[in-house]
Design brief:
Layout (H helix, E strand, L loop, with lengths): L6 E5 L3 H13 L3 E5 L2 H10 L4 E5 L7 H10 L7 E6 L5 H9 L4 E4 L4 H71 L5 H29 L8 E4 H11 L1 H7 L2 E4 L4 E4 L1 H17 L8 E8 L3 E8 L30 H11 L4 E6 L3 E9 L2
Parallel strand pairs: 1-2, 1-3, 3-4, 4-5, 7-9
Antiparallel strand pairs: 6-8, 9-10, 10-12, 11-12
Helix pairs in contact: 2-3, 5-6, 7-9, 9-10
Length: about 375
């Protein structure tokens, strides 16, 4: 026995017409149940999980439009597809009234048998797609909730771990310092080197813990959507970097910058990290030059920070945004968290960040944020 293509309620008070439609539906592979009145139709809907109701507009007891409205208003039957059909109610306003009352489609008779079957199958395919989309959306909602919870747990763990690591780090540093002061004159050259290695290792560990704390705390969606003047944000970042700028002789210039929607402190951190990197990764014996500019559209502002540094290999342009990813070992100071922080902040603002670069000539770091 062939599987049913769907369970259909065939409602028509005209027995010969109902019989003809029943034969057509059976030939189309459907499981068909008949009703000659609106009351009989509603009774069947209460008992059988129909996929579609082929519903005549003019019924002797209840109008087909009222039957449709009742079917759609009930939680248990709201998903039943209603295809209204009529040989007499053929005016546009009558079709509109039926559709406004909840019908999914409207046909006027006579209807070719093939057209009727194809219309029903199309409506069933649409409903199946809607149901699949609904299931997918529910799964996505659950997954997003789990991901959000996982991210919160990870941030709390990173904060707790980095915070708790500071105490033993301070203890080791303190005792190493005491040992150096108390036994300094008695230490051999090798032992002094060992203590220096301990101090260097503790310094790197302190930097890593500090950056881990920073990474766990930044990148939350801004609490408020307020206009932020990027000129002021850039000035704040440059003031924080004034010693590094003076020591390197870097020349930092900027076009007039617009206002954007975001968090002033977080965006300031992005400017500071990107400009600091531009200074840090300058070419030897070349004065760092850094220029900040903006390309603006109706929806977003794309901020570009252009430098003349050492550049980045194409194979590394995505890797550099990963946490603790460093390309140059220890010859250049840092922990490799700065660009990861930038990406986290910009993505929390609904934007994106990327780099265009030519090895030996420089890089352009770009990020987008909503315009004010």
């Amino acid at each position: 026995m062939a599987l049913s293509s769907g369970i259909i309620l065939n409602v028509d008070d005209n027995e010969p017409a109902r019989y003809v439609k029943r034969r057509i539906l059976l030939q189309g592979g459907f499981d068909v149940h008949d009703a000659g009145t609106g009351k009989d139709a509603l009774d069947l809907v209460d008992r059988i999980p129909f996929d579609l109701a082929l519903l005549d507009v003019n019924l002797p007891d209840i109008s087909g439009i009222d039957v449709c409205r009742k079917v759609k208003s009930r939680t248990e039957s709201a998903s039943v597809i209603v295809l209204q059909i009529s040989a007499s109610a053929t005016a546009a306003y009558q079709a509109s009234a039926a559709l406004d009352s909840g019908a999914d489609a409207y046909l006027t008779e006579p209807v070719d048998a093939a057209v009727l079957i194809s219309t029903i199958k199309a409506l069933l395919r649409l409903r199946k797609a809607e149901q699949a989309l609904s299931v997918a959306n529910e799964r996505l909602t659950v997954m997003n909730h789990e991901l959000h919870r996982s991210n919160e747990d990870l941030q709390q763990f990173a904060f707790a771990a980095s915070h708790d690591l500071q105490e033993p780090l301070r203890t080791v540093t303190s005792f190493a310092s005491l040992l150096e002061r108390s036994a300094g004159p008695k230490l051999s050259e090798d032992e002094r080197d060992y203590l220096k290695f301990i101090g260097d290792g503790m310094g790197r560990m302190r930097a890593l813990i500090g950056d881990l704390l920073e990474y766990s705390q930044v990148g939350h969606k801004p609490d408020s959507s307020q206009p932020v003047d990027l000129n002021a944000v850039l000035a704040w970042a440059l003031d924080n970097l004034r010693d590094g700028i003076a020591h390197s002789g870097a020349q930092v210039t900027s076009d007039p910058l617009p206002k954007v929607i975001g968090d002033e402190a977080q965006l300031g951190q992005v400017f500071q990290n990107l400009i600091s990197n531009a200074i840090k990764y300058a070419r030897p014996d070349v004065t760092p030059t850094i220029h900040v500019k903006v390309d603006q559209t109706e929806q977003e502002c794309i901020v570009r920070i252009v430098d003349n540094g050492i550049g980045i290999s194409p194979s590394h342009r995505e890797l550099i945004f990963n946490p603790f990813k460093r390309l140059h070992g220890r010859e250049i100071p840092g922990t490799g968290i700065g660009l990861a922080v930038c990406r986290k902040v910009i993505e929390a603002h609904g934007g994106r960040i990327w780099v265009d670069s030519v090895l030996g000539e420089g890089s352009t770091f770009s990020f987008s944020v909503p315009c004010a």
